[in-house]
Amino acid sequence: MQKKKRILLKIGSNTLTKETNNISRGKIEDIANQIAKLKDSYEFIIVSSGAIAVAKQFVKLESKQSAVFVKQALASIGQPHLIRIYQEIFREYGLLTSQCLLSYSDFERQESKTNIVNTINVLVNNNYIPIINENDTVATDEIKFGDNDKLAALTATLLEVDLLIIATNTNGIYTKESIKNNTPITIKEVTNFENLKNEVVNSKSSHGSGGMQSKIAAVALAKKANIETWIVNGLEDNFITNACENKVPFTKIK
């Protein structure tokens, strides 16, 4: 049997909410549908934000603590609901899911790194799709800095994936000039990473805490490990299958 290619798919809050204030079950269905179609050729690992966004739908916490602690508490409430939604929808497509909560400190200790690799390999080899999020109850890096872009790149590197797909709310990375002119043109393929860094305009999305700069930092980590990265518009339906078939504009960084 031919070995399946391994894809790490990173989905931010903005994609999961389709830029609204609610998690979109339709978007999670779209993702499940695509994975079900591709599962004979690819194995998937997902890094998903969205725990705080889920909690905000039905909880308003009163606290005199700082905003970061409130967000950590919201993440604690929202995470089990987020995983439940994934489980329910993926099951309808014959897909099995599991939850993995990681912290950046896990990537600093060799024992932890070995445990992550071994556990995720067992899950994937048994047809489970690991759904990874930062353990926001004990760590605040994702809340403060990067909407899981860095976490996705570190995980991709650790698991030696074949492809990192970062779902965002643009058709990849646009040239700086085209953004100035309000006529966005996608940079389709990048071979010179230094040139790409000069093109990037930093803007943050409404729910996400990242922005294009954090994606570029993630790409740099993946590139160091010789992992190809695609930056794709996750708001569109069939964004993974369409990118695989080159039907839509997106940025490919080799």
Could you characterize what this model shows?
This protein is an alpha/beta fold. An 8-stranded mixed sheet has the order 3-4-2-1-5-7-8-6, with helices on both faces. The protein is globular, with a radius of gyration of 17 Å. Helix 3 packs across helix 4. It has helices at residues 13-16, 25-38, 51-58, 67-92, 110-125, 141-146, 149-158, 176-180, 193-199, 212-224, 239-244, and strands spanning 5-11, 42-48, 96-102, 128-134, 163-168, 189-190, 228-233, 251-253. Residues 204-210 have low confidence and may be disordered. The chain contains 11 helices and 8 strands.
Helix and strand layout, with pairings?
Layout (H helix, E strand, L loop, with lengths): L4 E7 L1 H4 L8 H14 L3 E7 L2 H8 L8 H26 L3 E7 L7 H16 L2 E7 L6 H6 L2 H10 L4 E6 L7 H5 L8 E2 L2 H7 L12 H13 L3 E6 L5 H6 L6 E3 L1
Parallel strand pairs: 1-2, 1-5, 2-4, 3-4, 5-7, 6-8
Antiparallel strand pairs: 7-8
Helix pairs in contact: 2-4, 3-4, 7-10
Defining key terms:
254 residues; alpha/beta; 8-stranded mixed sheet; 45% helix; globular
